[in-house]
């Protein structure tokens, strides 16, 4: 059990690529923090610096109460789950789990006890005598988890551990990881590019972009109040619609007068465009339906706003009786607007 | 498995395309091999004027011959020594180079050089370096209190030929080991590092076991090399001496056949060599290729 504290962490690779450009973050003891961002934004680099697999170019890293900048990975009391699982192919599942304990000089009986316990927790007891190549992707994933938790480390580090699984298994493992972390209460730092995974797993999210933090907060805080256009469009699916303020202002209603002067673009989530007029102050937008996408419990309506070529997407529950080419009217509650400044990319209020 | 199927127009084209390979095999392998088999059953008279069929007498005489038995054990020492030295040196180099991730290309090209040098030249080179009167190694050893002389000491001579023969094979082994090391995912090493294994432990518990297919392949290749492809090295350095100390089987075939003119015995020796090669090849394909998969 330990907190992790990052202070001004920077990484410049030998070739001069600056992958991480100054990260300040504190992960509380027992917290599950997810680093999320598009591919290439420096998530893995940051995680690997915490693990000790990459040197820290600048800044301070604390795990527990000590600075660990110069400690070897083994001395940092962390365990990592790799994207490709990194199981030792020539060892049985049992030996894969036991390897880290053997290296640390645990007694045979203790190794046996811990491996059995982890295997039971992850339901991989039957696979203990097998080699990794005799396991399915999901089973390998469990073994990789088991190898991390037998050591009972101060922190778990995950680098996109679910991205090699098929969609169904990914959801299942996501739930299991969450439950496991709840039960063990081990501080966890989890990297993913999948915003849904991030939203569902994290106690807090850290949205990264180009080696910097865009926003830190609980999933709902970030969803409800994205701090920048980047976060607004990255978190949530389908992505938030961005509509020029001038366009909305032309539609009148005098509702937008109180927005800060710097606002020039407004974000509206696909869920916030309703087909029935809500109570309270709201805007009215007309549009033409270009494409209707039924996705079972919900539908996506791809529209073009009237008098502009602005494409937008609306998400509604069920399947409304609409036809492509039809003109549709949508209502947006005043509170559902996310005002941004295009130039700075920041939220204005 | 999908296999590619070619169809040729006409009947003769496929045969014509195969012909060069078949002819080369016939002329340079099948024919000499059958000649050796045939000759091994004959004995020539002292003047080489006539020969008579003697059955397996050439073989039974060989196994009563103290020189031949000596040659067998000399060959064993030589083959094991050469294989161990060339493989461990190559593995050490490959592991080092593998760590220097960058500028890898320049390194590998440099290290192929010794392999490109013909074995005879390598032999002469070593003969020169170890020359008791003018070589640098004896000079240095002398200062350290060791009188090196491979012309009189069988041990020195054996060391010399082992070093010379191993040297030539290092670059070849190096390339295979490096390729093997490169194919081990970096994340495995990283996982082991997090699991508390230091560099040496990582090497012996993760890297080396994962290299076994490469190691076994090279083991056979190197033994075959040491036993059959080192004629040039011996010829250029010790010529089998002193006192038969480095007279390995291939060299003895030559010495008995072309110098001693005992064609029957020489042929019998080459038949035995041939049997050993075949046995090693069978081991390679039947046993190792299947067993060494993890
Ligand atoms: N070993 C390396 N050497 C040089 N540049 C690297 C190295 N590893 C990653 N990078 C670069 O650093 C940036 C961040 O990479 P990474 O942390 O892997 O991103 P992510 O995990 O978010 O996809 C990328 O631009 C990548 O090309
Ligand atoms: Mg990554």
Overview features:
heterodimer; A: 349 residues; alpha+beta; Rossmann fold; OB fold (Dihydrolipoamide Acetyltransferase, E2P); 2 domains; six-stranded mixed sheet; four-stranded antiparallel sheet; B: 294 residues; mainly alpha; MetI-like fold; two-stranded antiparallel sheet; 13 helices; 73% helix; 2% strand; flat; binds adenosine-5'-diphosphate; binds magnesium ion; Mo/tungstate-bd_C_term_dom (chain A)
How does this structure look, described?
- The complex is a heterodimer of chains A (349) and B (294).
- By secondary structure, chain A is an alpha+beta fold.
- Chain A has 2 domains: 4-234, P-loop containing nucleotide triphosphate hydrolases (Rossmann fold), CATH 3.40.50; 241-340, Nucleic acid-binding proteins (OB fold (Dihydrolipoamide Acetyltransferase, E2P), Beta Barrel).
- Chain A is 26% helix and 30% strand.
- Chain A is built from 9 helices and 17 strands.
- Chain A has helices at 43-51, 93-103, 108-122, 137-149, 167-184, 195-201, 219-224, 229-234, 245-250, and strands spanning 4-12, 18-27, 32-36, 58-63, 66-67, 78-81, 155-159, 187-192, 204-209, 212-217, 241-244, 265-268, 282-295, 298-305, 311-317, 327-333, 338-340.
- In chain A, the strands form 4 sheets. A 6-stranded mixed beta sheet of chain A has the order 6-7-8-3-9-10, sandwiched between helices.
- Chain A is elongated.
- With 294 residues, chain B is mainly α.
- Chain B folds into 2 domains: 13-42 and 49-53; 57-291, Orthogonal Bundle (MetI-like fold), CATH 1.10.3720.10.
- In chain B, 73% of the residues lie in helices and 2% in strands.
- Chain B has 13 helices and 2 strands; from the N terminus they run H-E-E-H-H-H-H-H-H-H-H-H-H-H-H.
- Chain B has helices at residues 12-39, 57-62, 66-99, 104-116, 119-129, 136-143, 154-182, 186-194, 199-210, 212-228, 231-237, 249-259, 263-291, and strands spanning 42-44, 51-53.
- In chain B, strands 1-2 form a two-stranded antiparallel sheet.
- In chain B, a hairpin with a 6-residue loop joins strand 1 and strand 2 (51-53).
- In chain B, helix 5 (119-129) packs across helix 7.
- The longest helix of chain B has 34 residues, at 66-99.
- Chain B is flat, with a radius of gyration of 23 Å.
- Classes of the chains: A alpha+beta (349), B mainly alpha (294).
- The complex binds adenosine-5'-diphosphate (ADP) and magnesium ion (MG).
- Adenosine-5'-diphosphate binds at residues 13, 15, 17, 19, 37, 39-45 of chain A.
């Amino acid at each position: 059990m330990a907190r992790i504290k990052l202070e001004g962490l920077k990484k410049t690779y030998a070739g001069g690529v600056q992958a991480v450009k100054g990260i300040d973050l504190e992960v509380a003891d027992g917290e599950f923090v997810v680093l999320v961002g598009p591919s290439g934004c420096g998530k893995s680099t940051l995680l690997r610096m915490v693990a000790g697999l990459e040197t820290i170019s600048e800044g301070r890293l604390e795990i527990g109460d000590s600075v660990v900048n110069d400690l070897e990975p083994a001395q940092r009391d962390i365990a990592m789950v790799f994207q490709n699982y990194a199981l030792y192919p020539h060892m049985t599942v049992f030996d894969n789990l036991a390897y880290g304990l053997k290296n640390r000089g645990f007694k045979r009986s203790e190794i046996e006890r811990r491996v059995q316990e982890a295997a039971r927790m992850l339901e991989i007891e039957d696979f203990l005598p097998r080699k990794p190549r005799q396991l399915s992707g999901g089973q390998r994933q469990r073994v990789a988890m088991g190898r991390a938790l037998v050591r009972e480390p101060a922190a778990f580090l995950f680098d996109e551990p679910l991205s090699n699984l098929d969609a169904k298994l990914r959801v299942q493992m996501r739930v299991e990881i969450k439950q496991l972390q709840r039960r063990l209460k081990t501080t966890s730092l989890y990297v993913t590019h999948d915003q849904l995974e991030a939203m569902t797993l994290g106690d807090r999210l850290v949205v990264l972009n180009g080696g910097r933090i865009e926003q830190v907060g609980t999933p709902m805080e970030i969803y409800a109040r994205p701090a920048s256009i980047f976060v607004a469009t990255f978190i949530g699916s389908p992505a938030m619609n961005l509509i020029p303020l001038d366009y909305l202002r032309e539609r009148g209603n005098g509702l937008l007068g109180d927005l800060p002067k710097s606002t020039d673009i407004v974000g509206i989530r696909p869920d916030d465009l309703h087909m029935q007029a809500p109570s309270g102050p709201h805007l009215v937008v007309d549009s033409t339906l270009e494409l209707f996408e039924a996705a079972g419990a919900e539908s996506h309506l791809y529209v073009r706003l009237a008098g502009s070529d602005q494409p937008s997407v609306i998400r509604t529950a069920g399947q409304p009786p609409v036809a492509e080419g039809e003109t549709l009217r949508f209502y947006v509650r005043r509170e559902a607007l996310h005002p941004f400044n295009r130039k700075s990319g920041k939220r204005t209020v | 498995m999908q296999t590619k199927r070619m169809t040729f127009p006409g009947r003769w084209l496929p045969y014509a395309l195969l012909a060069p390979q078949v002819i080369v095999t016939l002329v340079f392998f099948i024919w000499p091999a059958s000649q050796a088999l045939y000759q091994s059953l004959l004995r020539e008279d002292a003047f080489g004027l006539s020969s008579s069929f003697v059955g397996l007498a050439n073989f039974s005489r060989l196994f009563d011959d103290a020189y031949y038995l000596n040659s067998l054990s000399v060959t064993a020492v030589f083959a094991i020594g050469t294989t161990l030295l060339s493989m461990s040196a190559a593995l050490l180099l490959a592991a080092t180079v593998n760590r220097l991730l960058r500028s890898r290309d320049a390194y590998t090209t440099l290290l192929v050089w010794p392999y490109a040098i013909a074995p005879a030249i390598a032999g002469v080179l070593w003969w020169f370096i170890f020359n008791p009167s003018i070589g640098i190694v004896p000079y240095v050893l002398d200062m350290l209190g060791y009188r090196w002389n491979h012309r009189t000491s069988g041990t020195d001579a054996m060391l010399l030929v082992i070093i010379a023969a191993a040297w030539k094979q290092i670059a070849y082994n190096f390339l295979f080991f490096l390729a093997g090391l490169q194919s081990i995912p970096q994340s495995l090493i990283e996982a082991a590092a997090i699991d508390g294994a230091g560099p040496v432990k990582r090497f012996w518990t993760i890297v080396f076991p994962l290299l076994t297919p490469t190691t076994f392949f090279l083991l056979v290749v190197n033994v075959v090399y040491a036993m059959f492809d080192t004629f040039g090295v011996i010829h250029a350095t010790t010529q089998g001496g002193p006192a038969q100390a480095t007279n390995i089987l291939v060299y003895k075939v030559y010495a008995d056949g072309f110098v001693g003119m005992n064609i029957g015995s020489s042929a019998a020796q080459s038949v035995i060599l041939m049997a050993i090669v075949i046995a090693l090849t069978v081991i390679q394909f039947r046993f190792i290729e299947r067993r060494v998969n993890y």
